[in-house]
Amino acid sequence: MAVDKEKLKQAIRLFLEAIGEDPDREGLKETPERVARMWEEFDRQRSFDFKLFEEFGDYNEMVLVKDINIYSLCEHHLLPFFGKAHIAYIPNGIVCGLSKLVRTVRAFALRPQVQERLTNQIADFLMEQLKPKGVAVVLEMEHLCMSMRGVMSPGHITTTSALRGIFLSDLRTREEFLKLIGKSNQ
Ligand SMILES: Nc1nc2c(ncn2[C@@H]2O[C@H](COP(=O)(O)OP(=O)(O)OP(=O)(O)O)[C@@H](O)[C@H]2O)c(=O)[nH]1
Ligand SMILES: [Zn+2]
Fold it and tell me: If you compute the radius of gyration of the chain from its CA atoms, what whole number of angstroms results?
């Protein structure tokens, strides 16, 4: 999914014209180039080396990184949706560097998305890479396309979750995760 920079520049110029702007005015004349560079930057963040560590093989409890700031773009309006991601897994002899969980979130977020697919893609990718006993992903996001246009409902939070493996089959593990992210009433 490489970015075609020249095509993108042309498209942004056309877009500016279509909304009644003058793409040659001072403030806008570099905008097509800036937007194209931004998408190249997003594109670079989509691939990274998911390095595994096998030497921590005796750690078999939950690893949880919570409150990861996350920014994505809704595929319907291309407006941002943003919020927090909480990601947990239970290793099965292999762990990863903690930053890789954040990079995974970013890799799947920086493209036109819907929150449900984003949640599932993060969980499935981590299952594939880490082959853990289980993965849990919870996203809590505000969608600007519901806040600044359309239904005009700012401040709402949409929560989605993807549970895999032991987080689905074992109630105690799921409860521990929910408690740690502050979502359990037990
Ligand atoms: N399920 C889901 N819906 C989303 C997400 N992001 C935006 N949407 C919704 O996608 C829908 C697109 O609906 P349409 O009716 O095709 O578009 P629209 O006429 O612009 O809809 P309104 O936003 O209601 O004005 C809207 O209801 C959005 O709120 C998401 O991540 N997941
Ligand atoms: Zn939208």
Answer: 20
Catalytic residue among 6, 40, 75, 116: 75
Classify domain 5-45 at the CATH superfamily level: GTP cyclohydrolase I, N-terminal domain (1.10.286.10)
Task: Report angle CA 173, 174, 180 to the nearest 5 degrees.
Answer: 90
Nearest to 63 by CA among 99, 102, 92, 91: 91
Residue 96 catalytic? no
Q: In the chain, where does DSSP find H-type helix?
A: 5-18, 31-45, 98-109, 115-130, 144-147, 166-169, 171-180
pLDDT, one tens digit per residue, over 92-137 is 999 999 999 999 999 999 999 999 999 999 999 999 999 999 999 9
Annotated binding-site residues for Zn(2+) read 74, 77, 145
For residues 143 and 92, what is the distance between their CA atoms, to the nearest angstrom? Answer: 35
As for the ipTM of the complex, it is 0.94
The Å distance, Cα 69 to ligand 1 centre, comes to: 22
52-180 belongs to CATH 3.30.1130.10: yes
Model pTM?
Answer: 0.95
Residue whose Cα lies nearest atom 25 of ligand 1: it is 150
Instruction: Decide whether 5-45 matches 52-180 in CATH topology.
Output: no
- Annotated domain spans of the chain: 5-45, 52-180
